[in-house]
Amino acid sequence: MVRLFIDNKEIEAEAGTPLLQVCLSNDIYVPNLCYLEGTKPQASCRLCFVEIEGEDRPVTSCTVEVRDNMVVKTDTEAVRRLQRTALRFLLSTHHVKCKECPANKKCELQRLAKFLKVGLRPKNLDRHLKETETDKSHPVFNYYPNRCILCGRCIHACKREHGKALLTFAKRGIDTVISFYGEEDMSRLPGEKCIACVEVCPVKAITLK
Ligand code: SF4
Ligand code: SF4
Ligand code: FES
């Protein structure tokens, strides 16, 4: 076990645990979207910044393991500025239609925006939406490219369940989307239909048909 201080609170944790996990387990909310417990952190959402004493600049807490005598601050001006920038970036490719969205009121993006006091439709934000609103090509799932925040949790959850992922990132840059490998791969899954990807998606960008 190690002993550390987060926002002046003394905390004991298992050595090697990701700092983000320790914060969340101790009711200290750090904005995050791409972290998935039990999988290798991808650090793609750039939201979970914290300041650690001795470090020059804020670091992503999902990629740092706790160590003895660490002193952490989760609520500094620099941290909030970086988090708001990351959120605005995500919103620039997100089609906000909460009333029609199955994630409404259970949505991580809504929670984050409220926490960071950023509107879901910030002024002066250039939006880059994709042409396809709904991809219905998969026999089991629908995918909503303009809702997807490309956190990658679906891919990592799938890999965690089956040893290999049956979906992946496709295309590049602002055209990046999630793509399924196809029905053939699905039919090789053991037992009932697996919906791990649906369950971990923070914005319901993958739904069951
Ligand atoms: S994913 Fe969240 S923020 Fe986006 S439309 Fe749905 S409920 Fe609204
Ligand atoms: S479909 Fe959902 S879980 Fe997968 S990358 Fe998009 S937002 Fe993340
Ligand atoms: S949760 Fe750490 S970068 Fe996304």
TrEMBL record:
4Fe-4S His(Cys)3-ligated-type domain mapped to chain residues: 78-117
Name of the featured protein: 4Fe-4S ferredoxin iron-sulfur binding domain-containing protein
Domain 4Fe-4S ferredoxin-type residue range list: 137-158
Domain 2Fe-2S ferredoxin-type: 1-78
Named cofactor requirement(s): [4Fe-4S] cluster
GO CC field: membrane
PANTHER family per the UniProt record, alphabetical: HYDROGENASE SUBUNIT, PHOTOSYSTEM I IRON-SULFUR CENTER-RELATED
Keywords assigned: 4Fe-4S, Iron, Iron-sulfur, Metal-binding, Repeat
GO terms for MF: 4 iron, 4 sulfur cluster binding; metal ion binding; NADH dehydrogenase (ubiquinone) activity; oxidoreductase activity
